[in-house]
Amino acid sequence: MRDKKTGNVVFYVSLVLIAVIAVWSVAFNKSFTVVSNAVFTFLTTKFGWLYLLAMAVFFLFVLYVAFGKYGKIRLGGDDSRPEYSNLTWFGLLFGCGMGVGLVFWGVAEPLTHYLNPAGGKGATPEAADFAMKSFFMHWGILPWANYAVIGLALAYFMFRKKKKGLVSGILEPLIGEKRAEGWLGKTVDILAVFATVAGVVTSLGLGTLQINAGFQHLFGIPSTLAVQIIIIVVVSVLYIGSAVSGIEKGIKVISDTNLYVAIGLMAVCFIVGPKIEILNSFVNGLGQYVGNFIPDALRIDAYGDNGWIGSWRVFYWAWFIAWAPFVGVFIARISKGRTIREFVMGVVLVPALASCIWGAVFGSLGINLGEKGILAVEQLKKIAAAPEVGLFVVLKEYPLGFLLSIVAIISLCAFFITSANSGVYVLSMLTTEGDINPPNNKKILWGIIQSVMAVGLLMAGGLKPLQTISLAAAFPFIFIMFAACASFIKAIGKEKL
Predict the structure, then answer these.
(1) Within the chain, what is the greatest distance between any pair of CA atoms?
(2) Which among 155, 223, 360, 468 could bridge 282 via Cys, Cβ 3.0 to 4.6 Å?
(3) For residue 7, what pLDDT is reported?
(4) What is the C-alpha to C-alpha distance for residues 417 and 6, in angstroms, rounded to an integer?
(5) d(Cα 451, Cα 205) in Å, to the nearest integer?
(6) Angle at 15 between CA 11 and CA 21, to 5 degrees
(7) What does the alpha-carbon distance between residue 429 and residue 433 come to, in Å, rounded to a whole number?
């Protein structure tokens, strides 16, 4: 057992580290930006191949454990059953893992790839095909397989082996109990806390910018720091309150409600949008995605220009790896009683398909405006350059655009709250020795820290440097996740089947 006297080391060291980063990023934003960019550029340039290889390994790992001889093992006792319905479970993990990102990038990313493909001429039917295939790759199976590595291993050790809900605990079969509970394990947990704080704060800031952009576009409310602070304060009260009320009440209610809102929004957008083009884009995009999966997943030029790969694919893989401890811990917490096969199907395949459908609908809304000549290329470039407002500008061109934009803001706020309160819950778990029902005082504290950091970074002039440093700091998680795969295989190999 861990020494109670040192049980709060992760909490206090994490607070100090985050305070230092916060002061540096706000008070000395220019130097922070220079350093974070330099570190991230070095890692993605020199180790881009490793990010690509890592995501492929994570995918092979989840396939092996799900569809091999271990697939029927339950994440808990043999007689345990899921705590949440399939719909609630899906809503919770989807809102935590992808919600805000899909709303933010659903229109803007396909449009950007359409205008500036990796090769060939932009704003052509071929560029439209490339845009869908790329979006499917970035939001499809590989990111969710990455989340499943930590989520599956932690759920197994928490609920079947009765271990604490800590990332370090996953490594115990590989490195031994003493190291897992010593400085090495605590370093892993501190990195997980930092990656979670940085990721959620960046998400808070991006969500705030998009909500403000929506208000400005629809109601003329100015896009100012004062308005953004008000948005953060209001949303903070909601997400801290829902986190304090627990998963079963606050978080679950918001997640369930938003799942219906998001599905409704997507369905209506399909009805008022270019239906045939959306269906064709989905089917063709899926075909190209599956058909070129291995070459695209491992594509990096030895001598050519990897600018597009670095700025999009490697950036995304670094971002999703940075989010892996946060999303993985939360998914583990809500997955007790499911079989390994059921877990992988629910965490990897179903959300990946939902993300592709979302991209086909909203991406086609934007691309259609270019292909049909409704908006000029220069207008489309402005939309792509300002992703926070792109969704609302595009929706305006379709029937019910104003109403759909209001629903989109509501959905964005709900995804925003779900992601933030999931982050509060995970941070509280990680800093209370893995307690799956952490105390409310920790939830409130972490909620306030996230909000204050988001406000500070917006005041300092941007969130990008924090996002960049979080990606650099998460680089060690590639190796931690490799170790998690090996540790899980070692542990599960002792199961009596």
Answers:
(1) 67
(2) 360
(3) 52
(4) 33
(5) 9
(6) 145
(7) 7
| pLDDT single digits (tens) 321-368 | 988 988 898 899 899 999 999 999 999 999 999 999 999 999 999 999
**Rounded-to-integer distance, Cα 109 and Cα 359, Å:** 9
**Which of 371, 398, 397, 361 has the alpha carbon at shortest distance from 278?**
361
Which DSSP string corresponds to 125-185? HHHHHHHHHHHHHHHSHHHHHHHHHHHHHHHIIIIIS---S-HHHHTHHHH-HHHHHSHHH
Q: What Å distances lie between residue 58 and 96, 146, 417, CA to CA?
A: 20, 6, 28
Tokens standing for residue 278: 């959306």
CA distance 245 to 470: 29
Cα 27 → chain centroid: 28
Report the C-alpha gap between 430 and 8 in whole angstroms. Answer: 10
Q: Are 415 and 211 in contact (CB under 8 A)?
A: no
As a 3-state breakdown, the chain gives helix, strand, coil percent values, each rounded to 5, of: 80, 0, 20
The set of residues, in sequence order, having a beta carbon less than 8 Å from that of 222 and lying 6+ positions away, is 216
The SS3 assignment for 398 reads: coil
| Cα-based distances in Å from 68 to 65, 288, 497 | 5, 27, 12
In the chain, what are the domains?
4-492 (1.20.1740)
Q: Give the closest residue to 104 by CA, choosing from 30, 256, 218, 208.
A: 208
Six token digits for residue 406: 């209001």
Instruction: Let me know: does 470 contact 194? Beta carbons within 8 Å.
Output: yes
Q: For residue 424, give the nearest of 286, 329, 335, 285 by alpha carbon.
A: 329
The position carrying tokens 């090495």 is: 184
Query: What DSSP letter does each residue of 439-462 carry, written as one string?
Result: -HHHHHHHHHHHHHHHHHHHHHT-
Q: Are 269 and 392 in contact (CB under 8 A)?
A: no
Task: Report pTM.
Answer: 0.91
Which tokens hold the place of 404? 């759909």
* Residues near 64 by beta carbon (within 8 Å), at least 6 away in sequence: none
pLDDT score, position 3: 44
Structure tokens at 357: 């459908």
